[in-house]
Amino acid sequence: MDIHLGQDLGNSEEDHILMEGTLSRVPTGVRSLRELIDRVMGKGFTIPEVQEDSGIAEVIPFPFLAIVNQYEMKIALLLALINPAMGGVLLIGPRGTGKTTAVRGLLDLLPLVPKSLCYYGCLPEDIETMGMDGVCPDCARKYAEGVPLAVMDRARLVELPLNARLEDVIGGIDERAAIHQRLRLQRGILAQADRNVLYVDEVNLLNDDIVDALLDAAAQGSYTVRRGPVSATYRSRFILIGSMNPEEGHLRPQIQDRFGLRVIVRGLESDDERLEAYRRVKAYLANPRSTVEQYRLESELAREEIQLARELLPKVELPDKVARVGLKWVKELGIDSLRAEITLFEAARAFAAADSRELVTVEDLKQVAPMALRLRKSSFMSDYLSQQEEEQAELKSLMERT
Ligand SMILES: [Zn+2]
Fold it and tell me: Most buried residue among 6, 25, 99, 276 by CB atoms closer than 10 A?
Protein backbone atom coordinates (compact mmCIF):
# COMPACT_ATOMS: atom_id res chain seq x y z
CA MET A 1 0.00 0.00 0.00
CA ASP A 2 1.25 3.52 -0.76
CA ILE A 3 0.86 5.95 2.06
CA HIS A 4 2.21 9.43 1.46
CA LEU A 5 1.75 11.70 4.38
CA GLY A 6 4.42 14.18 3.52
CA GLN A 7 7.23 11.88 4.54
CA ASP A 8 8.72 8.76 3.11
CA LEU A 9 7.49 5.86 5.14
CA GLY A 10 9.49 3.19 3.38
CA ASN A 11 8.32 0.39 1.18
CA SER A 12 8.23 -2.56 3.54
CA GLU A 13 4.86 -4.23 3.54
CA GLU A 14 5.42 -5.01 7.20
CA ASP A 15 5.52 -1.34 8.16
CA HIS A 16 3.52 -0.29 11.15
CA ILE A 17 2.48 3.28 11.03
CA LEU A 18 1.50 5.10 14.16
CA MET A 19 -0.85 7.96 13.58
CA GLU A 20 -2.36 10.04 16.34
CA GLY A 21 -2.80 7.13 18.64
CA THR A 22 -4.27 4.72 16.09
CA LEU A 23 -2.25 1.78 14.95
CA SER A 24 -2.53 1.33 11.23
CA ARG A 25 -1.61 -2.09 10.01
CA VAL A 26 -0.41 -2.01 6.49
CA PRO A 27 -2.26 -4.72 4.63
CA THR A 28 -0.02 -6.84 2.50
CA GLY A 29 -0.36 -5.88 -1.11
CA VAL A 30 -3.50 -3.75 -0.91
CA ARG A 31 -2.68 -0.49 -2.66
CA SER A 32 -5.95 1.35 -2.52
CA LEU A 33 -9.58 1.17 -1.51
CA ARG A 34 -10.45 0.11 -5.05
CA GLU A 35 -8.14 -2.83 -4.81
CA LEU A 36 -9.54 -3.80 -1.43
CA ILE A 37 -13.06 -3.74 -2.86
CA ASP A 38 -12.00 -5.85 -5.81
CA ARG A 39 -10.22 -8.36 -3.66
CA VAL A 40 -13.01 -8.71 -1.12
CA MET A 41 -15.58 -9.14 -3.91
CA GLY A 42 -14.13 -12.54 -4.75
CA LYS A 43 -13.61 -13.57 -1.13
CA GLY A 44 -14.45 -17.16 -0.32
CA PHE A 45 -17.47 -17.40 1.87
CA THR A 46 -18.48 -20.04 4.35
CA ILE A 47 -22.08 -20.63 5.28
CA PRO A 48 -22.37 -20.23 9.03
CA GLU A 49 -24.50 -22.35 11.32
CA VAL A 50 -27.87 -20.93 12.17
CA GLN A 51 -27.62 -18.68 15.18
CA GLU A 52 -29.92 -19.53 18.03
CA ASP A 53 -32.59 -16.91 18.37
CA SER A 54 -32.07 -14.93 21.54
CA GLY A 55 -35.29 -13.03 20.94
CA ILE A 56 -33.43 -9.74 21.27
CA ALA A 57 -33.66 -7.58 18.19
CA GLU A 58 -30.16 -6.41 17.45
CA VAL A 59 -29.12 -4.17 14.64
CA ILE A 60 -26.16 -5.72 12.91
CA PRO A 61 -25.90 -4.26 9.41
CA PHE A 62 -24.97 -6.45 6.45
CA PRO A 63 -21.24 -5.87 5.81
CA PHE A 64 -20.68 -3.20 3.17
CA LEU A 65 -17.81 -5.12 1.57
CA ALA A 66 -19.91 -8.29 1.30
CA ILE A 67 -22.26 -6.64 -1.20
CA VAL A 68 -21.76 -8.39 -4.54
CA ASN A 69 -20.52 -6.14 -7.36
CA GLN A 70 -22.24 -2.66 -7.42
CA TYR A 71 -18.79 -1.13 -7.78
CA GLU A 72 -19.94 2.37 -8.64
CA MET A 73 -22.29 2.55 -5.64
CA LYS A 74 -19.56 1.39 -3.29
CA ILE A 75 -16.95 3.80 -4.62
CA ALA A 76 -19.40 6.74 -4.52
CA LEU A 77 -20.31 6.07 -0.89
CA LEU A 78 -16.69 5.67 0.19
CA LEU A 79 -15.67 8.89 -1.60
CA ALA A 80 -18.51 10.67 0.23
CA LEU A 81 -17.01 9.57 3.57
CA ILE A 82 -13.57 10.77 2.50
CA ASN A 83 -14.61 14.21 1.29
CA PRO A 84 -17.78 15.84 2.69
CA ALA A 85 -17.22 18.82 0.33
CA MET A 86 -18.19 16.56 -2.57
CA GLY A 87 -21.87 17.02 -1.72
CA GLY A 88 -22.93 13.48 -0.85
CA VAL A 89 -24.52 10.84 -3.04
CA LEU A 90 -27.88 10.11 -4.63
CA LEU A 91 -28.62 6.44 -5.31
CA ILE A 92 -31.23 5.95 -8.01
CA GLY A 93 -32.73 2.59 -8.78
CA PRO A 94 -35.55 0.13 -8.31
CA ARG A 95 -36.34 -1.59 -5.03
CA GLY A 96 -34.28 -4.58 -3.92
CA THR A 97 -30.98 -3.47 -5.44
CA GLY A 98 -29.23 -3.04 -2.10
CA LYS A 99 -29.25 0.76 -1.81
CA THR A 100 -30.33 0.93 1.83
CA THR A 101 -28.27 -2.15 2.70
CA ALA A 102 -25.16 -0.44 1.32
CA VAL A 103 -25.79 2.80 3.20
CA ARG A 104 -26.45 1.01 6.51
CA GLY A 105 -23.35 -1.10 5.92
CA LEU A 106 -21.27 2.11 6.11
CA LEU A 107 -21.79 2.00 9.87
CA ASP A 108 -18.61 -0.05 10.32
CA LEU A 109 -16.57 2.22 8.08
CA LEU A 110 -17.38 5.64 9.48
CA PRO A 111 -14.39 7.89 10.17
CA LEU A 112 -13.50 9.80 13.31
CA VAL A 113 -14.80 13.36 13.56
CA PRO A 114 -14.41 15.98 16.31
CA LYS A 115 -17.34 15.87 18.74
CA SER A 116 -17.96 18.95 20.84
CA LEU A 117 -18.01 18.51 24.60
CA CYS A 118 -20.23 21.56 24.98
CA TYR A 119 -24.03 21.83 24.99
CA TYR A 120 -23.82 24.51 22.30
CA GLY A 121 -21.61 22.39 20.08
CA CYS A 122 -18.55 24.67 20.12
CA LEU A 123 -15.49 23.33 18.28
CA PRO A 124 -11.85 24.48 18.18
CA GLU A 125 -12.24 25.21 14.45
CA ASP A 126 -14.82 27.89 15.32
CA ILE A 127 -12.07 29.79 17.12
CA GLU A 128 -9.79 29.35 14.11
CA THR A 129 -12.40 30.82 11.74
CA MET A 130 -14.23 33.33 13.92
CA GLY A 131 -11.98 34.00 16.89
CA MET A 132 -13.20 33.85 20.50
CA ASP A 133 -16.65 35.15 19.48
CA GLY A 134 -17.16 31.90 17.62
CA VAL A 135 -17.65 29.92 20.84
CA CYS A 136 -19.63 30.31 24.06
CA PRO A 137 -17.98 32.12 27.03
CA ASP A 138 -17.48 28.82 28.82
CA CYS A 139 -15.56 27.33 25.89
CA ALA A 140 -13.56 30.56 25.40
CA ARG A 141 -12.37 30.18 28.98
CA LYS A 142 -11.60 26.49 28.50
CA TYR A 143 -9.67 27.23 25.30
CA ALA A 144 -7.56 29.85 27.09
CA GLU A 145 -6.79 27.32 29.81
CA GLY A 146 -5.82 24.70 27.24
CA VAL A 147 -8.74 22.42 28.10
CA PRO A 148 -9.94 20.48 25.01
CA LEU A 149 -13.30 21.54 23.55
CA ALA A 150 -13.86 18.34 21.59
CA VAL A 151 -12.91 14.68 21.42
CA MET A 152 -12.48 12.52 18.33
CA ASP A 153 -15.38 10.12 17.99
CA ARG A 154 -16.84 7.87 15.30
CA ALA A 155 -19.27 9.67 13.00
CA ARG A 156 -22.86 8.45 13.21
CA LEU A 157 -25.35 7.40 10.60
CA VAL A 158 -28.56 9.37 11.10
CA GLU A 159 -31.65 8.30 9.16
CA LEU A 160 -34.44 10.64 8.27
CA PRO A 161 -37.61 8.56 8.31
CA LEU A 162 -40.15 9.16 5.57
CA ASN A 163 -42.91 9.83 8.10
CA ALA A 164 -40.86 12.45 10.01
CA ARG A 165 -42.74 15.64 10.83
CA LEU A 166 -41.18 19.05 10.26
CA GLU A 167 -40.88 19.37 14.02
CA ASP A 168 -38.82 16.17 14.24
CA VAL A 169 -36.59 17.38 11.43
CA ILE A 170 -35.76 20.90 12.60
CA GLY A 171 -36.61 20.52 16.29
CA GLY A 172 -39.40 21.99 18.34
CA ILE A 173 -40.57 22.70 21.83
CA ASP A 174 -39.31 20.23 24.40
CA GLU A 175 -42.62 18.95 25.67
CA ARG A 176 -41.27 17.49 28.88
CA ALA A 177 -39.76 20.82 29.81
CA ALA A 178 -42.99 22.54 28.78
CA ILE A 179 -44.90 20.60 31.46
CA HIS A 180 -42.75 22.39 34.00
CA GLN A 181 -43.68 25.65 32.30
CA ARG A 182 -40.25 26.10 30.82
CA LEU A 183 -39.92 26.77 27.17
CA ARG A 184 -37.00 24.88 25.72
CA LEU A 185 -36.15 23.77 22.23
CA GLN A 186 -35.22 20.24 21.37
CA ARG A 187 -32.65 19.35 18.73
CA GLY A 188 -34.09 18.06 15.49
CA ILE A 189 -32.73 15.39 13.17
CA LEU A 190 -30.82 17.97 11.09
CA ALA A 191 -28.95 19.18 14.17
CA GLN A 192 -28.24 15.62 15.27
CA ALA A 193 -26.79 14.97 11.84
CA ASP A 194 -24.15 17.69 12.22
CA ARG A 195 -20.75 16.25 11.26
CA ASN A 196 -22.41 12.90 10.64
CA VAL A 197 -23.96 11.10 7.69
CA LEU A 198 -27.62 11.86 7.01
CA TYR A 199 -29.45 9.18 5.05
CA VAL A 200 -32.77 10.03 3.43
CA ASP A 201 -34.42 6.99 1.90
CA GLU A 202 -37.07 7.71 -0.75
CA VAL A 203 -36.02 11.34 -0.84
CA ASN A 204 -38.42 11.94 -3.75
CA LEU A 205 -41.40 11.18 -1.50
CA LEU A 206 -40.59 13.69 1.24
CA ASN A 207 -42.99 16.56 1.88
CA ASP A 208 -41.99 19.89 0.36
CA ASP A 209 -41.62 21.66 3.72
CA ILE A 210 -39.15 19.03 4.88
CA VAL A 211 -37.23 19.14 1.60
CA ASP A 212 -36.96 22.93 1.93
CA ALA A 213 -35.65 22.67 5.50
CA LEU A 214 -33.17 20.04 4.37
CA LEU A 215 -31.95 22.15 1.44
CA ASP A 216 -31.52 25.26 3.59
CA ALA A 217 -29.62 23.38 6.25
CA ALA A 218 -27.41 21.64 3.69
CA ALA A 219 -26.68 24.91 1.86
CA GLN A 220 -25.85 26.99 4.91
CA GLY A 221 -24.46 24.43 7.29
CA SER A 222 -26.77 25.77 9.97
CA TYR A 223 -30.39 26.73 10.50
CA THR A 224 -32.52 28.69 12.92
CA VAL A 225 -35.71 27.56 14.64
CA ARG A 226 -38.14 30.03 16.13
CA ARG A 227 -40.96 29.00 18.41
CA GLY A 228 -42.73 31.91 20.05
CA PRO A 229 -40.27 33.76 22.22
CA VAL A 230 -37.47 31.20 21.90
CA SER A 231 -35.15 30.71 18.99
CA ALA A 232 -31.99 28.74 18.45
CA THR A 233 -29.47 28.29 15.65
CA TYR A 234 -28.11 24.81 15.10
CA ARG A 235 -25.22 23.58 13.00
CA SER A 236 -26.03 21.06 10.34
CA ARG A 237 -23.01 20.16 8.24
CA PHE A 238 -23.65 16.63 7.15
CA ILE A 239 -22.82 14.18 4.41
CA LEU A 240 -26.15 13.82 2.60
CA ILE A 241 -26.99 10.44 1.13
CA GLY A 242 -30.32 9.99 -0.57
CA SER A 243 -31.94 7.12 -2.34
CA MET A 244 -34.93 7.02 -4.62
CA ASN A 245 -36.91 4.74 -6.86
CA PRO A 246 -37.80 6.76 -9.97
CA GLU A 247 -40.90 4.60 -10.51
CA GLU A 248 -42.44 6.12 -7.42
CA GLY A 249 -42.13 9.79 -8.11
CA HIS A 250 -40.22 12.67 -9.48
CA LEU A 251 -37.46 14.52 -7.61
CA ARG A 252 -37.50 18.31 -7.68
CA PRO A 253 -34.57 19.54 -9.82
CA GLN A 254 -33.52 21.84 -7.00
CA ILE A 255 -32.91 18.94 -4.62
CA GLN A 256 -31.45 16.71 -7.29
CA ASP A 257 -28.87 19.40 -8.05
CA ARG A 258 -27.90 19.45 -4.39
CA PHE A 259 -26.52 15.90 -4.45
CA GLY A 260 -22.91 15.45 -5.50
CA LEU A 261 -22.49 12.04 -7.10
CA ARG A 262 -25.39 10.24 -8.79
CA VAL A 263 -25.35 6.49 -9.09
CA ILE A 264 -27.79 4.48 -11.15
CA VAL A 265 -28.13 1.23 -9.23
CA ARG A 266 -29.23 -1.69 -11.38
CA GLY A 267 -29.95 -5.25 -10.40
CA LEU A 268 -27.12 -7.77 -10.78
CA GLU A 269 -26.90 -9.12 -14.31
CA SER A 270 -24.97 -12.36 -14.18
CA ASP A 271 -26.46 -15.54 -12.77
CA ASP A 272 -23.27 -16.23 -10.83
CA GLU A 273 -23.46 -12.88 -9.10
CA ARG A 274 -27.14 -13.24 -8.30
CA LEU A 275 -26.52 -16.67 -6.84
CA GLU A 276 -23.63 -15.41 -4.75
CA ALA A 277 -25.71 -12.48 -3.49
CA TYR A 278 -28.50 -14.90 -2.56
CA ARG A 279 -26.07 -17.13 -0.64
CA ARG A 280 -24.63 -14.21 1.28
CA VAL A 281 -28.00 -12.75 2.22
CA LYS A 282 -29.20 -16.19 3.32
CA ALA A 283 -26.08 -16.67 5.45
CA TYR A 284 -26.49 -13.22 6.94
CA LEU A 285 -30.11 -13.85 7.85
CA ALA A 286 -29.21 -17.17 9.45
CA ASN A 287 -26.33 -15.76 11.45
CA PRO A 288 -25.63 -12.03 11.13
CA ARG A 289 -22.85 -12.03 13.70
CA SER A 290 -20.81 -14.73 12.00
CA THR A 291 -21.25 -13.09 8.58
CA VAL A 292 -20.00 -9.77 9.92
CA GLU A 293 -17.09 -11.60 11.57
CA GLN A 294 -16.02 -13.05 8.20
CA TYR A 295 -15.54 -9.50 6.92
CA ARG A 296 -14.23 -7.94 10.12
CA LEU A 297 -10.58 -7.66 9.08
CA GLU A 298 -11.35 -6.20 5.66
CA SER A 299 -13.86 -3.80 7.19
CA GLU A 300 -11.24 -2.57 9.64
CA LEU A 301 -8.76 -2.11 6.80
CA ALA A 302 -11.29 -0.15 4.80
CA ARG A 303 -12.05 2.08 7.79
CA GLU A 304 -8.36 2.78 8.29
CA GLU A 305 -7.94 3.53 4.58
CA ILE A 306 -10.83 5.99 4.74
CA GLN A 307 -9.37 7.67 7.81
CA LEU A 308 -5.93 7.95 6.18
CA ALA A 309 -7.47 9.34 2.99
CA ARG A 310 -9.37 11.94 5.02
CA GLU A 311 -6.17 13.00 6.72
CA LEU A 312 -4.34 13.21 3.40
CA LEU A 313 -7.14 15.11 1.64
CA PRO A 314 -6.12 18.68 2.66
CA LYS A 315 -2.80 18.09 0.87
CA VAL A 316 -4.31 16.77 -2.35
CA GLU A 317 -3.98 19.33 -5.13
CA LEU A 318 -5.81 19.74 -8.38
CA PRO A 319 -3.40 21.05 -11.03
CA ASP A 320 -4.76 23.83 -13.21
CA LYS A 321 -4.35 21.92 -16.43
CA VAL A 322 -6.30 18.94 -15.05
CA ALA A 323 -9.06 21.26 -13.83
CA ARG A 324 -9.35 22.78 -17.31
CA VAL A 325 -10.00 19.35 -18.81
CA GLY A 326 -12.90 18.93 -16.36
CA LEU A 327 -14.29 22.38 -17.15
CA LYS A 328 -14.20 21.57 -20.85
CA TRP A 329 -16.35 18.47 -20.27
CA VAL A 330 -18.86 20.45 -18.19
CA LYS A 331 -19.08 23.07 -20.94
CA GLU A 332 -19.43 20.55 -23.73
CA LEU A 333 -22.21 18.80 -21.88
CA GLY A 334 -24.02 22.14 -21.55
CA ILE A 335 -24.32 21.96 -17.76
CA ASP A 336 -25.08 25.26 -16.03
CA SER A 337 -24.90 24.33 -12.36
CA LEU A 338 -21.60 25.19 -10.71
CA ARG A 339 -22.12 22.18 -8.47
CA ALA A 340 -21.12 19.98 -11.42
CA GLU A 341 -17.49 21.02 -11.31
CA ILE A 342 -17.41 21.35 -7.53
CA THR A 343 -18.47 17.72 -7.25
CA LEU A 344 -16.23 16.60 -10.11
CA PHE A 345 -13.13 18.18 -8.61
CA GLU A 346 -13.83 17.27 -4.99
CA ALA A 347 -14.66 13.67 -5.89
CA ALA A 348 -11.45 13.43 -7.94
CA ARG A 349 -9.47 14.76 -4.95
CA ALA A 350 -11.08 12.12 -2.75
CA PHE A 351 -10.28 9.47 -5.35
CA ALA A 352 -6.61 10.51 -5.43
CA ALA A 353 -6.51 10.52 -1.60
CA ALA A 354 -7.99 7.01 -1.54
CA ASP A 355 -5.08 5.98 -3.77
CA SER A 356 -2.61 7.73 -1.41
CA ARG A 357 -1.66 10.36 -3.98
CA GLU A 358 -1.31 14.12 -3.52
CA LEU A 359 -1.88 15.15 -7.13
CA VAL A 360 -5.13 14.74 -9.05
CA THR A 361 -4.73 13.35 -12.56
CA VAL A 362 -7.03 13.38 -15.60
CA GLU A 363 -7.48 9.65 -14.94
CA ASP A 364 -9.01 10.47 -11.50
CA LEU A 365 -11.41 12.88 -13.21
CA LYS A 366 -12.39 10.18 -15.69
CA GLN A 367 -13.13 7.72 -12.90
CA VAL A 368 -15.61 10.02 -11.16
CA ALA A 369 -16.94 12.09 -14.08
CA PRO A 370 -19.91 9.88 -15.01
CA MET A 371 -21.12 9.93 -11.40
CA ALA A 372 -20.54 13.67 -11.00
CA LEU A 373 -21.95 14.85 -14.32
CA ARG A 374 -24.90 12.59 -15.16
CA LEU A 375 -28.43 13.92 -14.69
CA ARG A 376 -27.16 17.48 -14.51
CA LYS A 377 -28.51 18.77 -17.79
CA SER A 378 -31.99 20.17 -17.81
CA SER A 379 -33.74 19.92 -21.17
CA PHE A 380 -36.29 22.41 -19.89
CA MET A 381 -33.58 24.98 -19.22
CA SER A 382 -31.82 24.50 -22.56
CA ASP A 383 -35.15 24.86 -24.45
CA TYR A 384 -36.00 27.89 -22.38
CA LEU A 385 -32.64 29.53 -22.98
CA SER A 386 -32.68 28.91 -26.72
CA GLN A 387 -36.16 30.47 -26.90
CA GLN A 388 -34.78 33.45 -25.02
CA GLU A 389 -31.95 33.77 -27.51
CA GLU A 390 -34.38 33.70 -30.42
CA GLU A 391 -36.48 36.41 -28.85
CA GLN A 392 -33.37 38.47 -28.15
CA ALA A 393 -32.34 38.22 -31.81
CA GLU A 394 -35.85 39.22 -32.89
CA LEU A 395 -35.79 42.28 -30.65
CA LYS A 396 -32.37 43.25 -31.89
CA SER A 397 -33.30 43.03 -35.54
CA LEU A 398 -36.48 45.02 -34.84
CA MET A 399 -34.45 47.80 -33.21
CA GLU A 400 -32.00 47.84 -36.11
CA ARG A 401 -34.77 48.13 -38.68
CA THR A 402 -36.34 51.10 -36.97
ZN1 LIG B 1 -19.32 26.03 24.14
Answer: 99
Where in the sequence is the domain holding 390, given as residue range(s)?
A: 316-402
Q: How far apart are the first and last CA of the chain?
A: 73
Is position 5 within any domain?
no
Active site residues: 339
Q: Would 339 be classed as within a structural domain?
A: yes
Count how many domains the chain has.
1
Distance 142 CA to ligand 1 centre (A): 9
Rounded to the nearest angstrom, the distance between the alpha carbon of 117 and the centre of ligand 1 is 8
Give me ligand 1 centre to Cα 161, in Å: 30
Residue 396 belongs to some domain of the structure: yes
For the chain of 402 residues, list the mean pLDDT of each consecutive stretch of 10. 36 36 45 78 68 63 91 95 93 91 92 85 81 86 91 91 88 67 74 91 90 86 82 85 90 86 92 91 89 90 93 96 96 90 96 95 95 84 82 91 86
**The domain spanning residue 341 has which CATH number?**
1.10.8.80
Residue 392 lies in a domain: yes
Predicted TM-score of the model (pTM): 0.81
| Residue 320 CA to ligand 1 centre (angstroms) | 40
